[in-house]
Design goal:
This protein is mainly alpha-helical. The chain has one domain. Helices cover 84% and strands 0% of the residues. Helix 2 (23-49) packs across helix 3, helix 4 packs across helix 11 and helix 9 (189-228) packs antiparallel against helix 12.
């Protein structure tokens, strides 16, 4: 490698290090882009069907969202906070009940097989004997977790910045898109415009599908819990809908709260709650999602789960929330740029290329 190549490599490494040091800022910017695309969906519909200018359409959308947030904060938030606090307070008691149930059944199995429970491992017996301490520790941990709400100033600042940037991007999307396209080499600018259009379409379809899916999950959870008589219904249904935004991990967490409350009443009712949530997730995965997301970029479940883990470790809670939209965009970029524009145009030379050419497409 010559001096110029080494200099270019060092410049590339320096640019990557700079981008990594600015990862939090870039993640906030990406969150703003996602929110701007969400705002752009109703704005674009108003422009198309009502023939309104973009500033007026955006103003109407923002006013409508403000009214929805205000009404929700007055009608839904107070009972949700009250019921959620009750759920948190009942979790340690539910854990104690679960450990007692496991203890009794485990000892019954040992007695039926060996005739005595003297072979019960000391560590397991000690765990059961100290289940009250475990419950108290869980309660302290949950209270500490709730106490972190008062220390989220940095997170609130990021959210406010993302919202402001999203409104700015939604108000004038074309100048920002043109600026991004101009950063590319001249020969690729036309193609980049097409790629960005594919990203826009994929993210839009993903957001619409996710919104419909979350509403359906919340509704089904509320109906099912009301039939089973598991309270509080509103808090658990809202949690199921909100946590549905985080696939794989969210539904599992949302099941813990109603199952814990049901366990205090009856083990069979807790089992019924688990079966209910498994049924809801299967309906969501195999009926609702394919129906409302048939135009969405198809994501493999393993890839989605791995991306959530990686982005959560690297970028924190916001990375976990933005994992799937990041994967949607990355999948479009890999398909359109890496595969279509680069790898599909590679030519093999020499003996390997001649052999493939002679072998033909069926070889």
């Amino acid at each position: 490698m010559g001096f110029g190549q080494w200099l270019g490599l060092l410049a590339l490494l320096a640019a990557l290090l700079l981008l990594w040091s600015l990862k939090d800022v870039l993640l906030v910017l990406f969150s703003a882009v996602v929110l701007a695309l969400a705002l752009n969906l109703p704005v674009r519909a108003m422009e198309r069907h009502c023939d309104w200018r973009r500033p007026w359409a955006l103003l109407v959308v923002l006013l409508g969202l403000s009214v929805v947030v205000l009404v929700s904060s007055v009608v839904l938030v107070p009972p949700f906070v009250k019921e959620f606090r009750e759920l948190i307070e009942k979790l340690p008691q539910a854990l104690n009940t679960l450990l007692a149930l496991i203890d009794a059944n485990y000892r019954a199995v040992i007695l039926n097989i060996y005739g005595t429970d003297s072979d019960l491992p000391d560590s397991l017996a000690e765990l059961f004997r100290t289940r009250t301490d475990v419950g108290a520790a869980l309660e302290r941990g949950l209270q500490g977790l709730l106490g972190l709400v008062g220390n989220l100033g940095g997170g609130v600042l990021k959210v406010v910045l993302a919202l402001v940037l999203a409104v700015m991007l939604a108000a004038q999307p074309k100048p920002y898109q043109a600026l991004a396209i101009r950063l590319a080499p001249s020969f690729y600018r036309r193609r980049l415009q097409v790629v960005l259009s594919h990203c826009d379409s994929a993210l839009g379809n993903w957001m619409v599908g996710l919104l419909i899916s979350s509403f359906c999950v919340a509704g089904l959870a509320g109906i099912g819990l009301a039939v089973l008589g598991v309270k509080p219904v509103v808090a658990n249904a809202l949690l199921a809908g909100l946590l549905n935004v985080i696939p794989n991990i969210g539904p599992t967490i949302s099941t813990v709260f109603p199952a814990s409350v049901a366990l205090l009443d009856s083990p069979w009712r807790a089992l019924a709650v688990v079966v209910l949530y498994l049924g809801i997730q299967n309906v969501e995965s195999y009926l609702i999602t394919p129906f409302v997301m048939h135009k969405q970029v198809k994501l493999l479940p393993g890839l989605a789960l791995l991306s959530q883990f990686v982005f959560a470790v690297l970028l924190g809670p916001l990375g976990l929330l933005m994992a799937l939209p990041l994967v949607v965009v990355l999948q479009v970029l890999v398909r359109e740029v890496l595969i279509h524009d680069v790898m599909d145009h590679w030519l093999l030379g020499g003996a390997a290329g001649a052999a493939i050419a002679e072998e033909g497409p069926e070889g």
